[in-house]
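Hi R.,

Here's the chain you asked about this morning:
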Amino acid sequence: RTFQRYTSPMAVDDRYVGRVWFFQDITAFKQAEQAIREDETRFRAMVDQELAGVLILSAEGNLLYVNPRFCAMLGYASEDVIGRSAADFLTGDGAANVLDRIRGIMSGAEKSAQVVASVLRKDGTMIPFLGHGARIIYEGKPAAIWVALDVSELKQAQNSLLRLNRVLKTLSAGNMALVRATTEDDLLHNMCKAVIDVGGYRLCWIGFAEQDMGKTVRPVAWSGADGCYIESLRINWDGDARGQGPTGAAIRNGVPEIVQNIATDPAMAPWRKEALARGIGSSIALPLFDGKRTFGSLTIHAAEPDAFDPEEVKLLVELAGDLSYGVISLRARMAQEESAERLRRSLQATVLAIANTLEQRDPYTAGHQREVARLAVAMAGEMGVPEDEVEGIYLAGVVHDIGKIQVPAEILAKPGKLSKLEYQIVQAHAQAGYDIIKGVEFPWPVASMIQQHHERMDGAGYPLGLKADQILLGAKIIAVADVVQAMTAHRPYRAALGLDAALAEIEAGRGSHFYPPAVDACIALFRLKGFTLKESAAS
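And here is the predicted structure, written out as tokens:
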């Protein structure tokens, strides 16, 4: 056991006679004191090694203790911070908030408190932290102990996640623009719009690399800024000062070029003032490839510096690849459509040349084929025939009597009634026309429509005796148009019979000779919609 002794002199009549000794058992006190020392040692051992910052504040908000981790967070040594106010290391509303929470803890109004604030480091930078505080007794006085966690990495992770989410939405919106685009201009402008509206970036523009002497970059689409600013950039992809920025470098080098800080990157000197004035902090330029060369750049600007981390860049590269593919595909489609249009015009010119050859030989058929074709096209439109099929019907109508080139001119121009043999020779023109045209490659069955334009629904026609569904739709339409035009025009052996007689003829043969929808469409055109035929000699 442990004792503490006390002694005092003893006197009798003012004469010293000896000493008095007192002994006190202080074992329990010493044990308590030892326990306190051990607890303090354990506390310091624990908090000194704690990965979080630990600090003890007085009721006034002064630092009484800090562990090494908190010192590392601040960038100070412990002796530089002990005794200073916590407010010295907090900024803005964070300082007032922390001091209010300390007062709340010390007064007992709050058992514990949690705050989020920013700590000012010795080097002037700021880091976000999450603090949790509670009331304790420290060195015999009320105090507050706080555990502070550096959440800068968490904030970075959250920001990175937000950026990735932003760019994923941008990628999705860009792909939608790609799917919906019908022209290259639509694709370029809608892609820029998607980057701004969905991605939330500051500015997006697309520039094409010109092959001129100055190797200029021509802006072709943009969103998020006024056009005057974009056009004032005057960027090239040469090696001079105006080619050193991200756009020129991306086109020249064929790889993404990133400027993480517009304010400090020397390559941005020619554009820094205007860019900063528009709130641009960083940029990325992504090259656009056509499979052989870099033909342009997709340039995206963000408001904040250091906006483009590797994962975001990876997704934006994918976006630029999709844009490149879209541009190439649309150009290929446009080239194909232009080629098809040239072919269509060439075929039409060839067919018309053939028709003119026949009409020059037989003046009585002049204009007949063209008028039949015009009426057939109008009927097909009335019937809702697809536009592409109507084109084929027109071409077949223009040359439907081409086989008559093999009929002797004297038979075609004979003013009287034809003999049986002569009539058979004339009938052969349908098969002859097929034989002439069948070698020409059309996207439509033009030769077969020519062959079948005298077939009838009940099989009474020629040359094959086809019935109903065996006859092509185009041939059914031309058959009706041919009869109407022929009856309303003059023939060598008779005068024109007139429109009423022609319409009565096809109406009488509706279903037996002629295709009912074609008859109905023809009658509707003349009687309801005012369609008229030009006067011409009939075949």
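One quick note: The two ends are 141 Å apart (CA to CA).

Cheers,
M.
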